[in-house]
Amino acid sequence: MNGSFLLTMIWAVPFITALALLPVDRDDHRRIKIISLTGNALNLLLVISLTFQFIGVSAAHPVADGARLSQFQFTATVPWLQMLHIEYNIGVDAISVLMMLLTAIVIFCGVLASWGVEKQAKEFFVLLNVLVAGVYGVFVSIDLFTFFVFYEIAVLPMYLLIGLWGTGKKEYSAMKLTLMLVAGSAFILAGILALYFESGLNTFDLQQLSQHHFSPEFQHWVFPLIFVGFGVLGALYPFHTWSPDGHASAPTAVSMLHAGVLMKLGGYGCLRVGMYLLPEGANMWMSFFLVLVTINVLYGALGAIKQTDLKYITAYSSVSHCGMVLFGFTAMTFTGIKGGVLQMISHGLMTALFFCLIGMIYGRTHTRTVSEMGGLMKIMPFLSTAYVIVGLAGLGLPGLSGFVAEANVFVGAFANSAPLYRICTVLAVLSIVVTAVYILRAVNGFVGGPVIERFATLTDASPLEKIPVTILLFCLFGMGMLPGWIINLVNEAVHPIYNNLMR
Amino acid sequence: MKLLLPDILLVLLAALILGHDLYKGKVNLTSSAPFHIAWLGLTVIFIVLACLPYNQTALYPGGYQVTGASLLFKQVFVLSALFTVLLSRPYFMPGGNQRGTMKHQSEFLFIILLCTFGMFTVVSATDLLTLFVGMELSAIPLYILSGFYKDDDLSVEASTKYMMMGSISTGLMLFGLSFIYGAAGSVTFAAVAKACAANPGEPLLRLGVLFILAAVGFKLTVFPFHTWAPDVYEGAPSPVTAFISVSSKAVAIAFLLILLYEPLAALHSSLQSVILILAAATMTVGNLGAMKQERLRRFMAYSSIAQAGYIIMALTGDAGNARSSIIFYLFVYAAANYAIFFIMSAIGRDGEEQRSGLQGLGRNNPGLAAILMLTAFSLAGIPPLAGFMGKFFLFAAAAKEGYYAMVIFAALNSTISLYYYLLLVKEAYIIQPQAEVKPLALDNVQAISLFLLTAAMLLAGILPSVSSGILAVAG
Question: Taking a C-beta distance cutoff of 8 angstroms, is the pair A359, A367 a contact?
């Protein structure tokens, strides 16, 4: 299939799936779920074929080491609003392809993990599919306007998804999450308009804008706008507060998708729009953001120690791990940025699996408080083993995906010889120890220990539930054992961004 | 004469409806004939308007001018009148609304049409006098309309309050216009423009402009002249509230657009800071006020105050950008507002028009709830709905002049507005009703209107041809 058509298909398929769900009878849950699963399975296949095509194409046209212009493949342009030169402009580079692959895997597993949704299932899957369409749209867009449109489409369904199907203080969390993220996009919108008018090129096209040299004064004030705007979604300290509440309240599939993929849109935007278009601004501001991000990494980890609710623990660890994405970017070294991108993928897989398992465990025990559980290893060995493995990935055990990413991030950050960077790296590395504490404590708390009477009769994962867990575990191991092809792809995509920063 | 056809048809239609009752002699209060004549007539006028050439300008004797932009404004007015007529239907039928049944439908329709003709006059004016007469012709009928529940205290209060405030604003406007006349020595736009360009520092002109801004501020509910709006919106019958919130605002902003970019163009650059401050204050006041409102008409009053803030922000832009973005926004704002009011009229059949009346909508009327959600998102400016495109153009007009701080402020403000629009969504989907709630019943008129409005909100956001058509004519 033609590459650019494939890109359009990839965001259109979930959207069509959502539309196809509309006429289905409200009580026919089985059909609703099957349609949803079919749509996303089809999309997973499309994305996998896109990945193979992309590897083929990029092998044929390697990016030169000194290139400053990101090389997008499968580009296509359709004028949309000619008066403002807004275009539907699509294309992918290695980062976006890998992120789309991540999205496809996570959402496929997410649909399987939400097989148990009984309440207003139709609305749930419609919104979920719309959200996913938005996420894919962001990754294929290289026109800032369409990028922004898709970005908002990806954020807004979250309100109802958490508010209606969530648990705990869901209404508060949903409102907080939506408002904070939309406030972030207010900054992004202003930043995009500033880029558009200041360049004088009358275009929202990322490539053309990247060719234009913005004056340092301009970059100086626009860069923090855009970086903070996207940073809100990437849980940048002190704008991360929506994340623990939001993730803890959200239903399983939504937590998976949100922590696994949506938060990465923040990092992706910081890199693609902020650092790529405004390299001088990035150079000016990075030490400031480095400090914030270091707080992120440490604060998230320390926050997780204090929590007793499994979801809150994972949510805070997400803040810490997403902080590592941005930490890699702010390191301003090639290895650091590469590490950041790898961490996006690794954390996406890891956190999706975390939330998936927690959802399944909660579905059985009806509690998420660690101290109330115990001995689950004997009752549900499959789920417990998986939890232990993903926990180990979280604390960066070699052989699992976390190690590959974190090693790159920290090596990259330490490679920056400025004293501030050295200090911050040392501080951030401490978080690994803290991570080990909270993960092992949680694991010890509910996986080990004596069997609690009232849980003794619970069952292990059903075959249907084993599928998403197995897929995600497989990916965790895959990325940990054979990171070579991913690193090669990422290398090519990071070169131009890095070269741009260093000019 | 072709370009004048809509105006002529409108007057004829008004006369026909009034004449219908006279001819019939003893008035049959429940007759639906005037209603059908009105909506059919307005539809015809809209079709005529849509078929006219938009690239021509014609000046008729007496200084009555028709341009592409004025035709677009007329489209807004006609659509607004049309939807008001459709919206008013259940309020005239026994049992159609909890608050009571309105009487004298023909008069109601006649006044709406007359008011719309006043608005036509404003956008066709080429001198200050015609402009003023048009503004008054569009304002006085509204005082009558807001008191249309003759036995309802709130409605009478609204009417009185509106008239008092309105007459003060009229006074201010006359004052301002006479200063400008004094400085220019003539009332025609051309002469005023010349005088302004020759001597932009003239204090008399500045004073005149300030008075006019204050006067229009009343109609446009600009801070600090917005205080009447919540009470009047609350007291007036819902269709009238809808009409005031769309048409009356549209004509006020048309008035400003005409004055600021034609006769007073030379003063425009010195007014930028005033406009920015007014815009920022207005949107903030509206947004903060709307948060706590339980009653939907009051809620819409504050919401529309905030929307006025976004609209006047675009007045900082150059003529083409300001005009095109504002006209486009008026279309999308009208669509979203009327959609909310149609949903309100459905709630009002059996209950109070309050936010809690939305409870259970997500389960009982999934279609209606989806429309409510889309409308709320459109008002809050969420892509890919029309409201986003509208706000984007408004923001772009200000950003082009370099007012980025204002753009950030406005975008953050629309985040605040998202809070209270989400409260509507929350009420419809998330909050469980205390008692068993019956599904809302929609009649055909309401269902079709809502369908059309929703389609408009979606298409104007997604299809570029809609927006670029409007931008091309006005810009």
Answer: no
What the block records as the tokens of A172 is: 């508060």
Contact B388 A187 (CB under 8 A): no
Peptide bond into B224 cis (omega under 30): yes
Q: Is the torsion defined by CA of A280, A284, A290, A296 positive or negative? A: negative
First to last CA, chain B: 25
Nearest to A71 by CA among A183, A210, A173: A210
> Three-class SS string for A240-286?
CCHHHHHHHHCCHHHHHHHHHHHHHHHHHHHHHHHHHHCHHHHHHHH
Task: Show residues of chain A in contact with B422, CB under 8 Å.
Answer: 159, 175, 178
Q: Which residue of B has its CA nearest to A86?
A: B464
ipTM of the complex: 0.91
Whether B399 and A193 lie within 8 Å, measured CB to CB: yes
Bond preceding residue A238 cis, omega within 30 of 0: yes
Any B CB within 8 A of A458 CB: no
- What predicted TM-score, i.e. pTM, was given to this entire model? 0.93
For the record, the structure tokens of B441 come out as: 């019943």
Vertex A310 angle, CA A305 and A312, to 5°: 65
Is A491 touching B (CB cutoff 8 A)? no
Q: Is the CB of residue A218 less than 8 Å away from at least one CB of chain B?
A: no
Residue A9: DSSP 8-state: H
Distance CA B208, CA B212 (A): 6
Number of neighbouring beta carbons within 10 Å of residue A379: 20
Q: Is any Cβ of chain B less than 8 angstroms from the Cβ of A41? A: no
**Residue pLDDT tens, chain A, 503 long:** 687 888 899 999 999 999 998 888 888 888 999 999 999 999 999 999 999 998 888 888 887 777 778 888 888 888 888 888 888 888 898 899 999 999 999 999 999 888 888 888 888 999 999 999 999 999 999 999 999 999 999 989 899 999 888 888 888 999 999 999 999 999 999 999 999 998 888 888 888 888 888 898 999 999 999 999 999 998 888 898 998 888 888 888 888 888 888 999 999 999 999 899 998 999 889 889 999 999 989 999 999 988 888 889 999 999 999 899 999 999 888 999 999 999 999 999 999 999 999 988 888 888 888 888 877 888 888 888 898 999 888 888 888 888 888 889 999 998 888 888 899 999 988 888 899 888 888 888 888 778 878 877 888 888 888 899 999 999 999 988 888 888 888 888 888 888 888 87
Judge: B464–A193 Cβ closer than 8 Å, yes or no: no
Nearest CA in chain A to B389: A149
CB contact under 8 A, B377 and A156: yes
